[in-house]
Amino acid sequence: MANHRDQEFTDYVSAHRGRMVRIARLLTSGDAHWAEDLVQTALTRLYLKWGAISPATGATWYADKILMNVFLDEKRRFWRHRETLTDDVSEPRPSAAAGPEDRLTVLAALERLPKRQRAAVVLRYFCDLDVAAAAELMGSSSGTVKSQTARGLDKLRDLIVEPLDSVEHVR
């Protein structure tokens, strides 16, 4: 029985880990190492509950919920400090939609948002979740998600003063 459960979990991780890392990279404003730590912690917690979760009926939602909780808990810890690395590890290849300068600008702006605003913006616009799904993952009301998203977008507009190359301005 444990072998079947372990194989199911391994298959799930193989299929969904990349998506989790992309979400975590956005939450950590591009910090690949911190994102990997968050995903590893989330997957460890998911594995501990794997017997009670049906992969077909909510494993992805549960994994996203754990990842969001791990991120929000990490941001609350006072002892967490970021280390500056002297050598960079190879990064995933970016999409061709936006230039590297645009990505860096957006990541830098995301980093300056408060954690709940950042989480709301990432869930709504990068993960393409509706308000109700984002609220459930954040453990907040729909109204809170709407207000945090609006405040986050307003602050992003203030922080990104130069137009991004890949964004067309429509008035």
Largest sheet: none
CATH class of the largest domain: Mainly Alpha
CATH topology of the largest domain: Rna Polymerase Sigma Factor, Chain: A
Total domain units: 2
Helix and strand run: HHHHHHH
Structural class: mainly alpha
End-to-end Cα distance, whole Å, is: 60 Å
Q: Helix tally?
A: 7
Low-confidence stretches: 166-171
> How confident is the prediction overall: mean pLDDT?
81
CATH architecture of the largest domain: Orthogonal Bundle
Which key phrases capture this entry?
171 residues, mainly alpha, Rna Polymerase Sigma Factor, Chain: A, Arc Repressor Mutant, subunit A, 65% helix, 0% strand, sigma factor activity, RNA_pol_sigma-70-like, transcription regulation, RNA_pol_sigma_r3/r4-like, RNA_pol_sigma-70_dom
Task: Describe the protein in words.
- The structure is a single chain.
- With about 170 residues, the protein is mainly alpha-helical.
- The termini are far apart.
- Mean pLDDT is about 80; it is low at about 165-170.
- It folds into two domains: about 1-80, Orthogonal Bundle (Rna Polymerase Sigma Factor, Chain: A); about 100-160, Winged helix-like DNA-binding domain superfamily/Winged helix DNA-binding domain (Arc Repressor Mutant, subunit A, Orthogonal Bundle).
- The chain is built from seven helices and no strands.
